[in-house]
Design a protein that fits this description.
By secondary structure, the protein is α/β, with parallel strands linked by helices. The chain contains 10 helices and 11 strands.
Amino acid sequence: MLARRHLFAGLALAPTPLMAQPAGRALTLVVPFAPGGSTDVGARLIAPRLAHHLGQSVVVENRPGAGGATAADQVRRATPDGSTLLIAVASTHGVNPAVFPDLPYDAERDFAAVALLGVTGFVLVVRADAGFADMTALVAKLRGEPGKHNYASAGVGSMPHLAGEWFRTALGLQVEHVPYRGGGPAMVALMGGEVTYMIESIPTVAGAIADGRLKALARASARASGPVAELPPLADLVPGFDAETWILAAAPAGTPAPVLARLNAAFNAALAEPELAERLRAIGTEPVTDSTPESAARHISTEIARWRRVVAETGVTIERR
């Protein structure tokens, strides 16, 4: 499969106020994961509409590797002219900087935030036939049988892992972490009875919830939005608990402010389109239409600080490989 795919050629579009850059020059969105994942799908949904508002072609390039560090390192070295952007995610610009001291990039110093594009909630799920009516019942079971239960995650150092440790330590639960190679395998293990519960992104577990194999007991995000808005938040049990993933466009540090502003306006205009918003919500991502480069930068800083605090409070230690 080609790593780079042209999604849209904007040459035939009627001019718009945002068309300040020559239409023949492509903008590259670098996705830090392989094709087919939720980050890749989201970027490919956004790209054609972004191209429309910019008046230039937009391509998506997949650069997987090292938990997103490969792509981040590539973009930080790119010419800071607005032609190359990283589709940063919670792992590259939130969790990884909090966990790994030896990243080849600095998530704040090496990048200029452009726009927060969308957020995706996490939920705590159990097997539907496990007999847990709500979180009170689950916590009572875990406390009543210390050392007999475990929880799954998408891997050591993943956000579900850190969220699981946050939940476990805050409530003083004696449960074991069982890491798997991704959210999918972790979900299969849960449905197979290998673990008692897991915290995972909505897109990963939505199908199993819909067909009755899994039951969502609470949302991990403090944000009440999307298909889990009516669920009680884990913050009811653990004050301040807030875990969600997100996608954010970031340029190399040194990109001129007018270029960042132009890109930000185009992203916001694209994400405000009802059809695109509906398609993003269908994959579990709630679009953000009012971010600024400044608010996006604050979002990164807040996320890094949050997960650094969680790492310090839980005592999680992880080696990067």
